[in-house]
Known about the structure:
The protein is about 55% helix and about 5% strand.
Amino acid sequence: MAAGGGLRLLGLAALLLLPPGAVLCRGTPGAAERRCFCQVTGHLDDCTCDVETIDAFNNYKIFPRLNELLESDYFRFYKVNLKKPCPFWNDNSHCGIRDCAVKPCPSDEVPDGIRSGSYKYSEEANNLAEECEEAKRLGAVDGSLSEETQRAMLRWTRHDDSSDSFCEADDVLSPDAEYVDLLLNPERYTGYKGPDAWKIWNSIYEENCFKPQNVKRPLESDRGHAFYKWLKGVCVEKRAFYRLISGLHASINIHLSARYLLQDTWSEKKWGPNVTEFQRRFDEVSTRGEGPRRLKNLYFLYLIELRALSKVLPFFERPGFQLYTGNKSHDAAMKNLLLDILHLAKSFPLHFDENSFFAGNKKEAAKLKEEFRLHFKNISRIMDCVGCFKCRLWGKLQTQGLGTALKILFSENLIEKMPESGPSYGFQLTRQEIVALFNAFGRISTSIRELENFRNILQNMR
């Protein structure tokens, strides 16, 4: 079947299965598409790039390769603690909807190489970690470890406890931390909504986006004029922080709209694009002009994470790094694919220029950078308050992925000083950070690819 015919059938199926009472846009063909995408074109604020360049680069170059990488064993298994209590309010209620559930992996389904050292990234590091953990578990005295191992253990500890992290990381050694197969627990609409979901995003926006209380964010004020006047007047770093969070929110909403439960019967479940849900979240009319802004913020987020991938290439190029699962031939093939993706990311012609961040007075810049880090770290902690476990899983992973991207961008000097061989103690990424980084970028890449699908469906609506 031709691609155009497939999209028309997909659009027809989505229209036939829309929820009862859904209100569709009417008018000339393409009117609905223009209302969602009218502003999602051309130049992006605070960037030298444009939407069309990103669409072509993502949809036809990086998206197919990234999908293949994320289906590999190294990237599909993510260790997470979904039982951590909410640190901000006493609310232990959890979503009772069956689609909110997460099915963890039995330990024997996780490759040995991953299981033996879930937080380090190579065979050498895994073996060292096991030796250190065993010594700590037995309460061994210093003399039980070689001098070299003692020094390495100290460096690992300093790294793991360092202040360069933008996220509240899970304790992967906790008995509550479990492996999850991300391919078997896809991000999609679960039915989790209402006051509980609103409380999460409201806490993120109102308390963590540098915004004064008297400035109301869009949809809580008259078309958001006061908010955008304030946003335009703040420094580029604070403006970027809001746009990153808005872009992440938009990306999540696209996933929920693209993988919506369209049919639920005793014989089968059918998931697919829900056009009405997409319009509710992004149509210019239903969002009082806010929807297209959200979509442009998604592209801004894409540029930030793409820039981080291009910057971290030297870390992964070192001969000692491997995507260690225990299967040598497969691990080597996946490293080659990963390097292909990173070289492709580096070749992007219109990268975001992060040098505009924290470029003023050194003392003030350092203070602002620390505020930036702590605000984002707070957002990562809010993810433990999400009542839907599947939403919590993907929220934690995507915030950790974005936090890792920010860590990379702010560690450029350390990355440049890394030795070509041997351990790099100045800059490190754990396996958790690596898996989160690429899966988070994969989610954004998927969102931009899904936008093309929604655009084609809406163009044909009357």
